[in-house]
Amino acid sequence: MDYSFDFKDAEAYDAWFSKAKNQYCLNLEINLLMRLLAPEKGQRILDIGCGTGVSLDPLQDKGLSLTGIDSSPHMLALASQKFGTRVDLHKGLAEDLPFDDNYFDSAFFFTSLEFMDRPAKAVEEACRVAKDRVVICVLNRYAPLNMARRVKGFFVPGIYSHANFFSIWELKQLMFGMLGNVPVKWKTTLQFPFACSRTAAWIENNRFVQKSIFGTLIGMEIRPVPKFRTKALTLKLRTQKAYNPATGLATRMRS
């Protein structure tokens, strides 16, 4: 079962982004997400593992139909306070999405795939419900900042103690192994996690820098092959009746 954030986790998650330095980092990550997602007015977008709605907030006021799903009722409670009826929120698992095939134009994961027990199944489900593109934003295993987070998680229990970090190669292997040779585009961000200046931001947005294998956040866009959920059909077999000879027929008597 996926790691489900409790109320304390949910409050700490939101409080983390209230700090100026962390907000700067979030803006860089959201910019990367938006470039890969490229939402257009009227589209239906699904946020898988939406949490408190941090990644849904910048998509508002763009003429989109927004849906979020998460396994944590505590996360969803905070998201509901923020959005009200502007976002359609659901409680459920990413590995078994309660939506029809190709229902959404796009679906995305924003630092949520790391906390799922079956990430390949979650991506497969995203490809089933999204007809145009799936965007995956995950924490990079080989980024210096994430290495520090992993080490800290061994000694001090916290959110990152439950995270499964990915590398670019692992993420690609997961995609190709499940979907075949589908079109994939990737970038990274947060090369300078401790710098919050205009110069650092300008460097961050350089397309060559965004191809670093040591970036803190990996953003990967895939164009999914259409997938469909199949259901077993119940076949009704008609049993053959035993043959009974008609009555009243003459029979030959043997001498």
Describe the main β-sheet briefly. Answer: 7 strands, mixed
Would you list the SSEs in sequence order as H and E? HHEEHEEHEHHEHE
**CATH first level:** Alpha Beta
Helix- and strand-based class? alpha/beta
Rg, nearest Å: 25 Å
Beta-sheet strand percentage?
A: 15-25%
Bin the helical content.
25-40%
Number of H/I helices:
7
CATH evolutionary superfamily: Vaccinia Virus protein VP39
Number of domains: 1
Summarize it.
By secondary structure, the chain is α/β, with parallel strands linked by helices. The protein is about 30% helix and about 15% strand. Helix 1 crosses helix 3.
What labels describe this entry?
255 residues; alpha/beta; Rossmann fold; 7 helices; 32% helix
Please give a structural write-up:
The chain has 255 residues and is of the alpha/beta class. It has a single domain, classed as Vaccinia Virus protein VP39 (Rossmann fold). A seven-stranded mixed sheet has the order 3-2-1-4-5-7-6, sandwiched between helices. The radius of gyration is 25 Å and the shape is globular.
Topology (SSEs and partners):
Elements: H1 7-16, H2 20-37, E1 44-48, E2 65-70, H3 73-83, E3 88-91, E4 104-110, H4 119-129, E5 130-139, H5 144-155, H6 168-179, E6 184-189, H7 198-204, E7 217-222
Parallel strand pairs: 1-2, 1-4, 2-3, 4-5
Antiparallel strand pairs: 5-7, 6-7
